[in-house]
Amino acid sequence: MIDDEENMNWPEVLKFMFESASSPDSGLRESALHIFKNVPGIFGKQQSHYMDVIKQMLTRCLADRDNPQVWFEAIKASTAFLVANDKNNHLLHHFKDLLPPMIQGMNESLAADDDSLMKCLIELAENVPKFLRPQMDNIIPFCLKVISDANLSDSMRQLGMEAIVTLSETAPAMVRKFGKYMPLLVPQVLALMVDLEEEEDWSIQDEPEEEDTESNSIAAESALDRLACALGGKTMLPHILANIPQMLQNGDWRYRHAALMAISACAEGCHQQMEGMLNNILDAVLPFLKDPHPRVRYAGCNAIGQLCRDFGPLFQKKYHNRVVPELLQIMDDNANPRVQSHGAAALVNFAEECPKIVLSQYLDVILDKMEQVLSSKFKELLERGVKLVLEQVVTALASVADTVEEKFTQYYDRFMPCLKYIMQNAVTKEMRLLRGKTIECISLIGLAVGKEKFLQDCSDVMQMLLKTQTDLSEMEDDDPQISYMISAWARMCKILGKEFQQYLPLVMPPVLKAASLKPEVALLDSDEIRDMQGDTDWEFVNVGEQQSFGIRTAGLEEKTTACQMLVCYARELKEGFAEYAEEVVRTMVPLLKFYFEDDIRIAASESLPFLIDCAKIRGDQYVAEMWNYICPSLLKAIEIEPEQSVLPEHLYALSKCIEKLGKGCLSQENMNLVMSLLEKQLQTHFKKQEERHEKRKDEDYDEDLEEDLLEEDDADTYILSKVSDILHSIFGTHHEEFLPLFEQLLPFFVKLIGPDQVWSDKQWGLCIWDDVIEHCGPHSVKYTQYFLAQMMSFLSDKQPELRQASAYGIGVMAKFGGEVYAATCAEALPLLVKMIQDPESRSPENANPTENAISAIAKICQHNNSQINVNDVLPMWLSWLPVWEDEDEAEPVYNYLCDLIEINHPLILGENHVNLPQIVCIVAEAFTKEAVSSESNVYTRMLNIVRQVEQNPAVFQACIPLLSAEQQQTLHQALSS
Question: 210's torsion region: left (phi>0), alpha (psi -120 to 50) or beta?
Fold first, then answer.
């Protein structure tokens, strides 16, 4: 009865509600509150008119101590109303008096073991955390009392913990201001982590440990992780470290286990603070890999694995000699398969982040141990059917091979026969995961050693894969082999290249089926969600008052993998994939708006430019039809995309598609929509900056919040870079014809390079103006009032990125701007020289700006030199070579050098060609540093110059002593090729 204009067309219900709320009958008062709780927007646009009446109603009912049902229902109704108005700060302030009786009522509800009011507190913490601030000195102690009360149910204690964790996530700076409670909170969380039961046969079970998400220990471990990530290491780590030493020394294994799991849990959030004390942490953890209790050894493996993941590759570089022997020793623990398996899992974490050069030192000892364990566990598999350790060792073997690549070749023959045997014979339902992991391992080893070595087994492996492929129709939808199969096919595609094309008819159907999987979804009310709360197969998103959208996540991993594999096929096979391009597009495009899995939407975006490449083989009409299907969905996905992790990928896909399809790919309607979307993104960019500016004025602002704000700024800057990519593509295809539309966005780009903006805004603003100059040439001069003064001033800016963007812009101006920019180029020249001649110009942070300045001067001399004396500049310019950091700018620099040499320019060659040794040195160093691609035209030109020098043995011999041994070797290889 509330229409689109938010008019309430049922005034009688409001009258009934108010009368009931004032009734002497407590049942009617409770009913009025029940209505309001379920429909907090019942007043529509008249809400502000009734504001005081609503407050009076709630205040009166919250004071009704004689009728707890009314009091408690008033708390629920107040919560619903406040959450429904979470953006209305004036309203939240007006209702602040409701909070004390709400908190008191929550306290009273504990005796009735009614958890609904604790859930109200969590809802308030999630949606209006600042509303709770005046009562934090009551709320946190109340939650601590709930957590510590062993007489309460586990679920109630966990809700008390969840309330503090949620507040920490939604208002971390505010919670940090109440840091006095941390010495009380952390021990309570750790105490819940100790709440474990002894299971006599735990360590010999043949299944991986399943997390009981409802147990106190797992809930507390998750809470510690979330608290560390939300509040940061400065706040959390001191209190964690204050408790862990005595826990590690406790005679009860559960305390030692909890302490080690706590180290794992806090590593991500306390990363910065823990990094400096890794040596001490490792000293504390390693002894427990020899603890008498298997679950403590398991927790020790877990901690090592987490340190490898969160601090790699630094951790591996520094501590490989201490960690590897201990993990290998754990893998001898045959009496405790779960511990043995977790040791192999920790080795996976070690190998995945380990530099190749470090892991290669241990190949003999690691692979000897793996061969030994693989052999014994393979025997156990045949005799007793146990497989847990074998599954994990196969995964570890795959990780090692993946990291060391071709260095695995010498060990290949020791492992491949056994792996092939498992793949061929592990066909029962219980062995599905083992077989899937073996398929993964074989394909990763094949990719590591390369086609030539893998060829001896490739045919057998392909035949087994093909046989499995034909049996896919008989597999259950949750068969773990399916995702491993899909990934393996993609690796086989990389190994075989174009030869893989023959297998596409067999491979594509199951991949497309997995990618097209329609997950089970449901719209549920709050009661239904409560019933499904423990079901880990479902995820929920609130979509309105008292309702959530649920999706069954089982199968989404296969869907994600399939999408990524389709991208791989399109990228690797190109025209060979053309006949499938349309079907893949029809599969992928709907996934651009698939909201429950970021990776799915990213894969869908990534696929589009490659699919267009594939489609081009079938003709322009075919591509046009495909693009007409893609474009509206891609633009719509950009318009409604909520995730900062995915939006840049959608924007990038649009820019690459425009680049590939060229002028005319966007109809006038779609071009207008693109402009509207870009305007929206730019407005959002500045709005978010203002919001961060306001947050810096907040009463709870601190250093940790500033770090969070800087991270947000980086994320927004990344999106801005993708906006720049789109404009770059449109300017590249439309040139000056785009300027009238560009002018719609002009104020944003003027603002980006304004004096008050952060340097990253200025950088990307300059990049857009660089595009205007490059693609519009002299037509860009009409806009110099907006950018030229800033571009010149940024040549002397302290920020290297701004100097680089400005120097690049001057180079573009020289090359494409024409005579109208000649005076500006002359004016910029001394500023560029000053940048290059600065004593710190070649330091790592200044190298790119310096090389862009060298390139800019080359472009001025070559293309726009009417107002400078080139002969005064060239000797100086030659002395600044070689360049090698920026490959994009190295190419024009060396092309210009080749031009000057080929015309025998006297200032470059010198009198009697005295500069030839210097030129050979420049070329040799450029080749050594791989400054230009060996496939490029300029590489060939440079090599030909050296060959000409080589034809004069005396001159060439005079050059050799000036070269380092590495330069001599590089040049010799280049000349011999």
Answer: beta
